[in-house]
Specification:
CATH superfamily of the largest domain in chain A: Medium-chain alcohol dehydrogenases, catalytic domain
Largest interface: A-B, 45 and 45 residues
Keywords (chains A, B, C, D): Metal-binding, Oxidoreductase, Zinc
Distance between the termini of chain A: 12 Å
Oligomer: homotetramer
Family (chains A, B, C, D): Belongs to the zinc-containing alcohol dehydrogenase family.
CATH architecture of the largest domain in chain A: Alpha-Beta Complex
Number of domains of chain A: 2
Strand content of chain A: 25-35%
Radius of gyration of chain A: 20 Å
GO molecular function (chains A, B, C, D): oxidoreductase activity; zinc ion binding
Number of strands of chain A: 17
Shape of chain A: globular
Number of helices of chain A: 11
Pfam families (chains A, B, C, D): ADH_N, ADH_zinc_N
Largest sheet of chain A: 7 strands, mixed
Organism (chains A, B, C, D): Entamoeba histolytica
CATH topology of the largest domain in chain A: Quinone Oxidoreductase, Chain A, domain 1
Order of helices and strands of chain A: EEEHEEEHEHEHHEHEHEHEHEEEHEHE
Chain lengths: ~375, ~375, ~375, ~375
């Protein structure tokens, strides 16, 4: 980085268009850090951002929010971190002093979804270098026993999937249904399992995802191609339904299915980004004419340093193996474009691609 | 009761028709009690049951679920209660051993809304005598310092209204909006106040209700006749919105208003019986595209003895005055028909009517 | 049972003395069931009861509270169960309508520890037949895919051990210390793991228990013979301490160790029966001079049908293997005496003994 | 402040000695603010600090942690605040990005009790000017409708007293005992009342405090001079005991009383600073031999901007009147010494003294 004032990154040029651009390297405020990527992963939401215009039009905004990196600069007030440190970068990097953070909702710091800054309010991580706000509070040191490519699954996939299970308020021995088993949904299956679920129905159809779901703790696969999933679930539970539902796929109509398959006195947790539709429809009758205690939750994943550290400890202790999510591997920053196109084109065997970037001074930088 | 085998009651004869009928006095199982009414109150849901057919057609089903009474018979296994005891009868009388009760949802014992038995699964309380299941667990002794007509407000109005505030998860100093200030909504205002709310917006229009809302702790009245309530709330809060919303009136469209007026990281609690409409619409965008942590709760009030005792203590200690709800008073069982018709016709000055029934042996029965 | 009016059981004759006695078969009330044992296990607390007089003197009280059995009689109001059904019998059988149960504490129904009835307030399960109160609410059907001897671990060991983890309020990725790894402590290790703990320190010394602890999810073994456990834990965590502690062994002095090894803003959950000592000492300074938010919890396990069903589902789905706890196996009711003496004498290789009882009509009784 | 480089303050010179000193005005970092006092109040813990040496020896440390003030300087990154703003200064000013803050315990940011900085880790507020860390996150704007002297009660008294009620997990209609009714205990009474308590026993003896306790929601006064308070409470509750206890006075032995007077399945919340004694004794037997679910909590009050804003709204809406706490009023910074000596000498009519400081440019500073 010495002497450089610009950086190269893969950007959204406008709706439907991507390309490599050269930009000024960001300022590093007193609490901030500049980081270069060691591992990157594209996310379905990157494709939504570009090709569906889900967050509106953006021009020359660098993409990406899943990264493990190495610190190249720290601000004057940063205490815990120094140049050369390898860090897990969460997709969500809150402002920790804000009103919402003090109330327990850091992901909404400064306004709804305000903790989601990368490739939303500022440039993302698909770049030679990227900026992290409140570095001490938002960056977790990468444990030596975790590979960058495994750790990059923590940035968004693990924390988002597990948050679905947290939102669904899963208790020991609960029967759970996870709707959608892409990479986030698979992590919801794993999260439900880590929170003590007994029977776990995983709703999906792609063979590879179904196989991996079983490895992560699912006990039953429900294929929507075999008929209405509500009927399948009710049949499999003697008409009782499930205790909890995690929604990690589908669309605005998925909530109705969840409400219909769940018992009274229960929780539905959504972590699916709902890109289309005016309304989510909650069926009045099955929602107990307003009085069925079928609690409906939906939330952006928590971010920040401590969440990353906690989840990383599940990998370090061998209790969670994120490498099962990785189906495609690339080397070199420029390959992030290929990885992103894979996410757009979704071949049948894809769960998640990862790009690893190496540096000559990776182990000597300081 | 000596020697009598039948009883008179005000019944739903069919949809749209009421009348007095004579029925066999119910059996009293080993855990049960038979009770005669000391105070009765009709509820809006009684009118929904009869004139809207909200729970389907019923023939010769005695109406009513709000009562204070006196025990005339107890089953062989009843330990806490004896003939002559004056008791508060909750509208919801759960089966306490059921799976849902063990999970913390007694109001859904035996199935969704299963704890609501009076004038739903069995005859109600507008009768010379009525049956109570699991008497020890469901009947609270009437404290000597509370009048039957004040206590009958506990059966449904207080516990339902307060449950709305409980569902909305109100914390110290929260800014709250209560939508709907009929008798239940007024108790949601009081409940929000008892749970520590600071500013409380009460949404209503009838002058008498608005005046009483201010006495129960509301700080601002929002009249929907003055324009969109969401806009009024946002304006009054400098665009921030409220921390919590209690829905105690309106219809399936009210939820959209609640979602629009509330901050991210918040709770909406509904206790309004939703009588019509296929779906409740949750606006996708304002619900944070699925990720705004605007938790949506809706539930039937808890019932049972302990809830009645806890709420009664608020009256005994002078912290809650339910008499403010009572706008019309009647004497004699036969007047419950007039009281019910008042609820149907809703004159402008009505909040809640009460019927008091006296017996010569009220103080000597044993 | 036909025609028999008495039954044989292994009883506490007085403090320090056990023996087989003949007693009248108990009455079966309308909500109750009579059950014959299919699998029994003695518990350390049985030995405390007899040889330490922990609950005071008792004469001719049949011992035992861990059983899987088969129903031989049901009361007239029992709906879910019939003669011949094989059932898991929880050690704790609450009265579900009591005040404490309605407040969420069924284990204390009717008074502190009041849900613990077997070999405490009434005869226990080491008998030809035993009585179960509120059978519908307290007995869980034994799933066909679980062996009685594996299921009997649910009655007390699993539910108690897991409750320790519940009381310690374990969250995803927490670092946890479990003090004591007898059978309950091993289940606290498993419980912590099922609730999402990352690193788990297990404090013990017996090799077999330590080996099994690692299989149940422990990541580090702390042997108190190697020095002060607080120092060992602090050293292993770079002075930070652990997030949560479960106490499943030790004595009244163990709490001081827990307080010293835990971070501020944390929870300590105890499920150890404290048999001796006037006081539990909480060190003032390390407890933050009263302000450290080191929450201290201790509680009797929940019992009842639903808890058994939820935990059984962990066995049915292959997520929990209770057979690892069973080190000694016996056949025949009379062998429960040998099993009990094993618990008293505690050989080094003992975790838990089980007694299996067979009947000619086990599969045809109805 | 213009041109001044030093400031005058009332300091602890050493254990047992106070005096006015002149010190360099603190640096103002980019996130910080410098504030001059508008209202100050001494706290019992100031007297503990000086005359009991409770936090160890300190030399020339300016005292005080309760203040309302006016901003005289802000750091370059401060966004919400500007010179001239009148602000409520919480006694606890956390570092919001720290690990403990992210876990929900900001008062322990950086280590146990680490959020308590004033007159502990740095100079306090009894000074011409004082330093506030993370000003945007820690300072609340003083609402125009609240007087500085009423608002200064929020800094510690209200938030600490109410936190006791929060820690005791008070629910609607609970019977509560508050032990100790100095200014913090009175606010615990008010807090219990704001959280929905029914019957509230206040344990105290000074007449003025007892009178005020009744005004804040206490229903029964228990005077320890009339006999054992446990016996008095059990007698008054027909032997049942209370649902919750808040400890706001007494010493390490008070916990045993709390455990003895409380039901199983309950919570004890402590906010009393425990200055002496090696251990807090929890009586083994009454604590249910470790299994009574009598949860024990003790914690430093939360601080920060949002907590101040929430509690201030209770004053703005007329729901909390803190002026009842103020028994002695002074004018001028130098009078803080007289106020502090009052707290040391505790005359019978004292609850809380307040010092008001006026400036010529109070309304024109900007």
């Amino acid at each position: 980085m010495e002497g450089k004032t610009t950086m190269k990154g893969l950007a959204m040029l406008g709706i439907g268009r991507i390309g490599w651009i050269e930009k000024k390297i960001p300022e590093c405020g007193p609490l901030d850090a500049l980081v270069r990527p060691l591992a990157l992963a594209p996310c379905t939401s990157d494709t939504h951002t570009v090709w569906a215009g889900a967050i509106g039009d953006r021009h020359d905004m660098i993409l990406g929010h899943e990264a493990v990196g190495q610190i190249v600069k720290v601000g004057s007030l940063v205490k815990r971190l120094k140049v050369g440190d390898k860090v897990i970068v969460p997709a969500i990097t809150p402002d920790w002093g804000e009103e919402e953070s003090q109330r327990g909702y850091p992901m909404h710091s400064g306004g709804m979804l305000g903790g989601w800054k990368f490739s939303n309010f500022k440039d993302g991580v698909f770049s030679e270098v990227f900026h992290v706000n409140e570095a001490d509070a938002n960056l977790a040191l990468l444990p030596r026993d975790i590979k960058p490519e495994d750790a990059v699954m923590l940035s968004d996939m693990v924390t988002t999937g597990f948050h679905g299970a947290e939102l669904a308020n899963i208790k020991l021995g609960d029967t759970v249904c996870v709707i959608g088993i892409g990479p986030v949904g698979l992590m919801s299956v794993a999260g439900a399992n880590h929170l003590g679920a007994g029977r776990i129905f995983a709703v999906g159809s792609r063979k590879h995802c179904c196989d991996i779901a079983l490895e992560y703790g699912a006990t039953d696969i429900i294929n929507y191609k075999n008929g209405d999933i509500v009927e399948q679930i009710l049949k499999a539970t003697d008409g009782k339904g499930v205790d909890k539902v995690v929604i990690a796929g589908g669309d605005v109509h998925t909530f109705a299915q969840a409400v219909k398959m769940i018992k009274p006195g229960s929780d539905i947790g959504n972590v699916n980004y709902l890109g289309e539709g005016d309304n989510i429809d909650i069926p009045r009758s099955e929602w107990g004419v307003g009085m069925g205690h079928k609690h409906i939750h939906g939330g952006l994943t928590p971010g920040g340093r401590v969440k990353m550290e906690k989840l990383a400890s599940l990998i370090s202790t061998g209790k969670l193996d994120t490498s099962k999510l990785i189906t495609h591997r690339f080397e070199g920053l420029e390959k992030v474009e290929d990885a992103l196109m894979l996410m757009k084109n979704k071949p049948a065997d894809l769960i998640k691609p990862v790009v690893r970037i190496h540096y000559d001074d990776e182990d000597t930088l300081h």
